[in-house]
Amino acid sequence: MLQAEGVLVNGVIAPKADADLTLRLETTSILNYLERRKYTEDLTWLPADFDTNRDMQKVLGYEPAYEYMGSPDQNFFANLNMEEPLNIEGYDVLLQVSSKQGSDVKAGDRSSYDFNVRGEKYQLILEWLSPLDNKVAILDSSGKELVATGLYDFATSIPAISDRPKEMLDVKDMTLDAAGNGCQMRIIFQNININYGRGAQEGAFYNLFVLVAVPK
């Protein structure tokens, strides 16, 4: 696709600032899919630390695009196929958490969940960054943030989700991994519901399984 559009020439990127929406949509979807599975590391024509949302315009010449951008009032949801078993091997704890909803939700609002592993205290924080995005973070007993990630970019990169509601997605398609300071965090989305309305109608709901492996 990139070769056909003149963006990839003889294994070298030729940035294309005037890329049409179709190319932007396809490139964003594919690169997000590859990035989530760490396949972009094998693409020699991309920088080693390439991040789709951060670097796409700088590297390819055009910004990321998502299906929902063309229709701000649409709503989509996705549900995890609960008949598929969850692999919890290698993790110390599994928590089930949900973001709160309502027109009074504002950036900085948070919920906390305390847990213990091998006698050490930890805390999971679920914090609103915007009406559409939450941050999930793991803190140690001193309050130091060990690992954290947002949810929105991942949720909207799931290839199976478009402007039509999709149900019963596989675990692999609903899994987000993050790591930091020796802490491993795996987020499995049980439910996603995002409304691209205006004002008070705009909002998101995330229901999550969070698996955590704390530093040894």
Describe the protein:
The protein has two domains: 8-65, no CATH class; 75-213. It has helices at residues 21-36, 52-60, 152-157, and strands spanning 8-9, 12-13, 75-79, 93-98, 110-117, 120-128, 134-139, 145-150, 175-180, 183-195, 203-213. Strand 6 (120-128) and strand 7 form a beta hairpin. The model is unreliable at 161-165 (pLDDT under 50). The protein is an alpha+beta fold. Helices cover 14% and strands 34% of the residues. Strands 3, 4, 9, 10 and 11 form a five-stranded antiparallel beta sheet that branches. It has a four-stranded antiparallel beta sheet with strand order 5-6-7-8. It is globular and about 55 Å long. The chain contains three helices and eleven strands, in the order ββααββββββαβββ. The chain starts with 7 loop residues before the first strand and ends with a strand.
Features:
216 residues; four-stranded antiparallel beta sheet; alpha+beta
Summarize the structure.
The protein has 216 residues and is of the alpha+beta class. It has helices at 21-36, 52-60, 152-157, and strands at residues 8-9, 12-13, 75-79, 93-98, 110-117, 120-128, 134-139, 145-150, 175-180, 183-195, 203-213.
Radius of gyration: 19 Å
Overall shape: globular
Mean pLDDT: 85
Largest sheet: 5 strands, antiparallel
The overall strand count is 11
Please count the helical segments: 3
The total number of structural domains is: 2
Rounded to the nearest angstrom, the distance between the terminal CA atoms is 45 Å
Topology order in helix (H) and strand (E) letters:
EEHHEEEEEEHEEE
Helix vs. strand class:
alpha+beta
Bin the strand percentage: 25-35%
Question: Which stretches of 5+ consecutive residues score pLDDT under 50?
Answer: 161-165
